[in-house]
Each structure stands twice: as structure tokens, then as C-alpha cells.
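We treat protein structure as text, and this decision shapes the records that our systems exchange. Below, we set out a record of this kind in full and without editing:

***
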Amino acid sequence: PTSSTASPLPAAMADIVMEMGFGEEKEKVDFGPELEATLPAASADAQAGRLVEALDALLALEKRTRIANDAFASARVAQAVVRACWAAKDLNGVIEQVSALCKKRGQSKRSTVALVRQALRFVDALREEGSTALPTAVEKPSEPLEAKPEEGEEESKSSSSSSASSGSGSAAAQASAAGAGGKPKEDEEPADPTEARLAREAKQEKMEDASAVAHERDSDETAPVSSAEGAAVAEAAGKTMREARLALITSLREVTDGKIWVEVERARLTRALAEIHEAEGRPAQACTTLQDAAVETYAAMRTGEKLDFLLEQVRLCRDVGDWVRMSIIANKVQRRVIDRLEHQSRKLRHFELLACLHEQRSDALALADDFQAVLECPVVAADEARCAETLGRVAVYTALAPWTETLTARWHAILQDKRIERLPAHQALLRDLVSGEMALLPRPELAPLAADPVFKGLPDGAEKLSAPEAISTLASRHPTAPSAAPSSSSTSAQSASDGSSSSSSSSSSSQAAAAAPGRAPAVPQGARWWGVLHRRVAQHNLRVAARTFSRIKFDRLCELTALTPAVCEEELRDLVTAKDLWARVDRPAGVVLFRRRQKPAQVLTSWGADLSRVLALVERTTHLIRKERMVLASSGRA
């Protein structure tokens, strides 16, 4: 059985507890007067060259404040220590003191954050011209945590206050209803589940941004540092600005490793280190370094800075050709966040990078989505020239995409946009595709399409190629060198000026072309898109033929579609494989069937269904006629 009273502690344990300070609350010590006296004196000593005396006084005071658990005073003293080393132009002293102070026993998180932020000021002072400034050195949060009310809201508040003063009875009734369990209007969730979810997500994002602002403001007492001071410190250390900055960044990354309360500062240091690697010609190492920080999980980082970090990761992946990882990182950017008005510049950068990814994958429909998102930006919509170019890209990429029912609806939506009237060639192309008639390419009214930026790198005279020539030489899976094609030297020069491939890939492709003399040189992406356009038009013509004819001679089909037998059979095979239509080719008879052969029972069933529909229509028509006669008879006009 246990007793109700606790057993007394042994004498030795009680002494240890009292000695450690757990037995009674420690008396609070006010270090304010001592700080006001010590910090200016230590700063003056450091500037006068007496760094040792200044550090002795500051480190003794830091130990006392740390033991007394005064986090505010300890953070101020720790910042004064590294500022004294910086004032004495001792870069190694700054690195050693930051590392030593962060490893002190019982060091508070506030002191660690203050030290790292002050060191970030030094890192920013050591940056060279043209490099990106750290956000902590240029963006001091000044906006309030709560958003200011709009003018309409202020008017509504004033009107509501006046109505409340005039009608006190109704206000009391409303207050009693709210006290009975009613929610204010701003706290009520929409009835639609989707709108309610979006409202909750928006509220959560506002809370995260507010916490990020609070994190920036917390203990942000760092002193600004000029670039001239950074140059002097680097010169005193016998290093260049880049070398001094790299040494300080490396030390700070070791200090912040594994500390979640300085994860934002570590991410900024990581970005600065990646920038140095890229400036020194090591983009692969810069890409690997920048991917160490998973900023999408940082709640203390602002949304705009997160987006900038992710877009920088995507850009480096594009530069090194890591398309798989580029796609993974790009998917971390949420569309509902990037669509906000304050992120329009980032939205343009995001979809420009996605366009590079989808261009490399030859995904025309994804490219149309990218440029449609760019077209929705107010900045692009306000610029007529840029808006027309972007809309033309959307129209062309939708025409280049494989056909689906939803794609037809999208063509109709583009044709309903009045801005497409400024692009008559694009408008004529889409009208041909949505019509139930065959379209031929090339045509004079479609000639301006060759000047579209999508077809950049198109060889001279390629726009005059017939559909079979364009498909076999530009868009075929196994292209052969055409008789009228441009020389290999001009093609390679155009592909080099395109800039879409790296030097290693171009060298490997040239080696492959030299090893396989039966194949044509690498086709530029713009020229390949031109061949794909001919393929889509040919496939449209075959779909029209399938809807028009149940059976047709193969030679007649090739004549109507302006295709050679080999190209026509290949395109027909692709459409049947994609299940866009049903067709069978009888080669001995030279006949193409576009309708399935039905059994007699199936034919009778279809006839019976047709007769049922006809009789239903006749019955409804008779009913409407009788109804109209009865209405006229009742009104006396029969």
C-alpha cells in the first residue's frame, strides 16, 4: 500500500536540487544598466584595436546573462561580440565566436537566432556586384500582421455602427442570437464544400504569413553593414570578397545544421552558396546544394520567398538538364498560390520554366496550358503585342495536340475570343479543325503561320513542302534525308542558335548522325512542330472521311487527303491505335472500311430502334398540333 504523503528526499539529493536552482525560483537580475555601460565601451575598444579587452568584458557578461536565463540580454551581448570582431576586421574571429557561442551550454534559441542573423548581415556585406542580396538584409518586415480594411469595409463598418446606434433593440437581438450560439458572418463557412475548403486554406496561408512576419520581427536587432566594411574585412583577412563570403557561409551552415529554429536562415545561406557555385562555373553542384533545403515545409518562411526559392531550384534543374527532378520540384508550386495578384511576376517565371520542360517533352497540350496561364496574367493582357503573341501560341499548341472531344471545345472557346481576330491565320486554322470539312496545308491564307515563334528554326522553303514531304522529313519517327532539304551545316547552325540543347547532347547527336549515314541530321524543334502540324491536319482529314464514308477506295482516300499511300496508311494506323476511329484496310481489294460489319440480327435491332425514334417523334408532333388547335379553339380564333 502507498502512503498519502510523499517520502522526503535524501539530504544529498536535496542539496543537489537546491544547488541547481530547482528548489526555489531564482531572483531576476536586471542587466539593463550594465548592458548600457558595457556594450558601447566594448565597441569603442574594438574600433580602437583593443579587441582582446573588448571580448573579455563581453564574454564575461554573456556568461552571466546566459546563466541567469535572460535570453534578451544574452542575445544582445552575443551580437555585440561578433560585431566587435567585425569592427576589428577579424573575419576568423567572427567565424570562431559564432561557432563557439552557439555551442555554449544552455545557450538560448533566441541568442542563436540573433547570432546567425547578425552574421547574415556580414554575408550580405561581402557579396559582389550582381549577386542577389539576402532577404534578411533588405526586407525588414514593416507591414502589420493584420490586413488593413478596404474602403468598402470601412464604409460598411461606419454604416453598421450608425445603424446600431439608431436601432439598439435590433442590435440587442443580434447580440443575444450570437450569444445563443450564432457565428459572425466572417467566421461562417460557405455551404459549398469546395468553397469551404478553399476558404480554410486561404485562412491557413494568412496565418502562416503572419507567423513568418512575427518570426522576422522577433529579436531582429541586427545592425546594418555596408559593402565597404565587407571589402575592408576581406582585405584584412587576405582574401577576396567571394572567398571571405564562402568561408563565412560554410561556417554558418555548420552552425545551423539540424536547428529547426534557424531553418529559414540556413535556407538563405544555402541559396547564397549555390549562387557562388554557379558563378564559378559549377551549375551541377549549385543545383545539388540548393536542393538540400526543403523550403515547402518551412512554416516560418514567407510565401513569396518560398516561391522564389522553388523557382530557383527549377531553373537550376533546367540548366543542368535534370528534367525529372525539375518536374518534381515544379509540382510543389501550388496553382492557387501562384495565381494571386501579388505573385504575378513569379507566375510568369513559373510558367516560362514549365514551358521549357514541356517543350523538351514535346507535350503540346501542356504547352497550351502554360501559355493560357500566362495569357490570364493582367500584365500580359494589358500589352497588346505580347497578348497577341501568347494567344497565337495557345492556338497553335492546341492545334498540335492529339485530338480529343475536350480539345474541340477548347478550339471553340478560342474562336469565341475576340482577340483572335487580330490573328487571321490562326483563326483560319482553328476554323478548319472544328469544321466537318477537309483542310489542306499549305494554303496561302495559312502561310503567316510559319512566322509564329512556335516554329522557330524552320528551314528556308520548308513552309512550301507538301504534307507527305513535311511529315516524312520533319515529323516522322525515322526521318530520311530529303532531296530538297537544307544542308547539314545550316541545320546544325540553326539548332545551335536555338539554344534548347546542351553542348553534350549536340555532340552526341552529331556523333549518332555520323554513325548512321542513312538518317537525316537532327531536326530543330520548331521544324519538327511544323511537321506535327501537317500530321494533325492529315489526321483531321481522315476523321472527316471516316464520318462521311462507310467504305472508300484507298487510292481515292489518298487523293482526297493529299497524302501518299505510305503516309496515309501510317496516319490511319495511328488513329486506329489511339481509338479515334474504326477502320480496316483490305489491301488486295484496295478498299478502306470505316464501318463495322453487322450481323443481320444487329441490323434489324438498329432498324427497330430507328423506327421507334421516328414513331416517338411523330407522336409528339401530333400531340403538339392538337394542343395548338385546342388553344386556338378556346380563344375563338379557330
In short: Residues 600-634 form the longest helix (35 residues).
